[in-house]
Design a protein that fits this description.
alpha/beta, Rossmann fold, 3 domains, 6-stranded parallel β-sheet, 5-stranded parallel β-sheet, about 15% strand, binds 2-acetamido-2-deoxy-beta-D-glucopyranose, glycosyltransferase, Exostosin_GT47
């Protein structure tokens, strides 16, 4: 090679190196200092993938993490760094009717000042308290409503999954803030001698009348409305008329399929009654002497007959705790200790396919054994329950020796894997205020977002040939 061409090629090499360096430098610069005036559109920035994690690069915003809806391609939970809750960025824009307090916080005894429709929620210590005990199991109505109120309260830090908007034509879903489970639990009895119906029924009648008169309901026939009826007996009088809405339920046990079904409705977890065991304090395989734990009512109607059959099969086994009695008051403490020291916890169909025992087991990191053929599980599109639960068909469970053989064959290693997974997913079953990324409140909003898009899909297809 001649001297000249050597110099030329070196020069070209240098030019390439320098330009590559400049290119890298400028892209780093763009990423770091992008703001609203950036050359790169926000949507692109938002979707930069690092380690399977969505990161939002904008140092001007406060950084918090929020769950994105699990994508159908994988149920791995993705997180991104959050921006202040802004309706254009939220997963779900929610319009909430300003129903009078008698439908919601009024049932809790809350009284606002004149013309005050909603309690202040800026101080989490001073929000109206929900009654404890068994009522709490069916409290999603309360946590979701609080979360919506918080979305307009900048003092409260929460993930921006759902945001309340004031204009219903800008909303994805219309929220009906009726505490139907609490109304059932508190107001089902006919009180005064002159009253013909209970307050619970009266409220439902009023609610139906109110909704039927709203332009939002008329617009969609209620299909984009969200109604919460977690207690299986709540909304008993109104459910037929409100059945077109997206319902948040504990299960479908007491509903005809045309009113409630897995296609349009959302199954929400019960709020567990036992305390969640902190991860670090959770007993390991060796530290849990009881193989199998069950505590519940002996006789339940309908699907519950299997409880008795199992009782006769298991009552004489020494590493099995099988006792009857509901867990109320002191019983909760006992059950909590019992589950925390058991490897497996039985969840048998009761008078409804679901029960809060499953969620107590999860909070205790006790591997649930589910014997309930009709059970619907919360968030099953995001969670693979077979990773942390054992499913046994009812017909198998009542065969002599079957259940215990199955459980005794599960080795320490397999059990420990399930236990590790349980510790990871417990968060998804926590209701709390303020809500946290990935907790029950946020998981429910994500499920609602999925249902809303399928509702919208059907709705748009039906409109193809209708001009209005
Ligand atoms: C990517 O993953 C590796 C290994 O799992 C980890 O060390 C690294 O910190 C991660 N980077 C980011 C930006 O999360
Ligand atoms: C609500 O939004 C719609 C559509 O953007 C708009 O036409 C309407 O004026 C808004 N209503 C109010 C009260 O702001």
């Amino acid at each position: 090679m001649s001297e000249k061409s050597m110099v030329a090629s070196r020069f070209i090499f240098c030019v390439i190196v320098v330009s590559m360096f400049l290119l890298i430098l400028s892209s780093v610069f763009l990423l770091q200092f992008s703001s609203d005036h950036s050359l790169i559109p926000r949507s692109v920035l938002e979707l930069i993938l690092v380690n399977n994690t969505l990161l939002y690069f904008n140092p001007n915003f406060k950084r918090e993490q929020v769950m994105l809806p699990p994508f159908p391609s994988g149920d791995q939970i993705r997180q991104r760094i959050m921006v202040p809750c802004d309706p254009t960025r939220a997963l779900l824009r929610v319009f909430m009717y300003d129903l009078p307090p008698e439908f919601h916080f009024g049932i809790l005894g809350w009284k606002g000042s004149e013309n005050q429709k909603w309690p202040n929620v800026d101080d989490p210590k001073r929000i109206p308290a929900y009654p404890g005990g068994l009522n709490l199991q069916h409290s999603p109505e309360y946590w979701l409503t609080l979360d919506l109120l918080a979305s307009n309260t900048p003092e409260v830090h929460r993930p921006c999954t759902a945001v309340r908007v004031q204009n219903s034509s800008k909303a994805d879903v219309i929220f009906v803030p009726f505490f139907s489970s609490l109304s059932y639990n508190r107001n089902s009895k006919i009180k005064g001698n002159n009253d013909l119906v209970s307050v619970n029924k009266e409220l439902q009648d009023k609610l139906v009348e109110f909704l039927m008169g709203q332009k939002e309901w008329k617009r969609s026939g209620g299909k984009d409305h969200l109604v919460i009826a977690h207690h299986p007996n709540s909304l008993l009088d109104a459910r037929r008329k409100l059945g077109s809405a997206i319902l948040v339920l504990a299960d479908f046990g007491r509903y005809p399929v045309e009113i409630a079904n897995v296609k349009k409705d959302v199954i929400a977890p019960y709020k567990h009654l036992v305390h969640t065991i902190p991860r670090a304090e959770s007993s390991s395989y060796e530290e849990r002497p009881t193989l199998l734990y069950f505590q519940g009512a002996i006789y339940r109607k309908d699907g519950g007959i299997i409880r008795q059959e199992l009782y006769y099969l298991l009552k004489n086994e020494k590493d099995v705790h099988f006792a009857f009695g509901t867990i109320k008051g002191k019983g909760i403490h006992e059950a909590s200790q019992g589950m925390a020291l058991s490897k497996f916890c039985l969840n048998i169909a009761g008078d409804t396919p679901s029960s809060n025992r499953l969620f107590d087991a999860i909070a205790s990191h006790c591997v649930p054994v589910i014997i309930s053929d009709e059970i619907e599980l919360p968030f099953e599109d995001a969670l693979d329950y077979s990773e942390f639960c054992i499913f046994v068909r009812a017909s198998d469970a009542v065969r002599e020796g079957y259940l215990l053989n199955l459980l005794r064959l599960i080795k320490r290693e397999t059990w420990t894997k399930m236990w590790e997974r349980l510790k990871e997913i417990t968060l998804h079953f926590e209701y709390q205020y303020p809500s946290q990324p990935g907790d029950a409140v946020n998981m429910i909003w994500q499920e609602v977002a999925h249902k809303v898009s399928s509702v919208r899909f059907d709705w748009h297809r039906k409109k193809r040939y209708h001009r209005s």
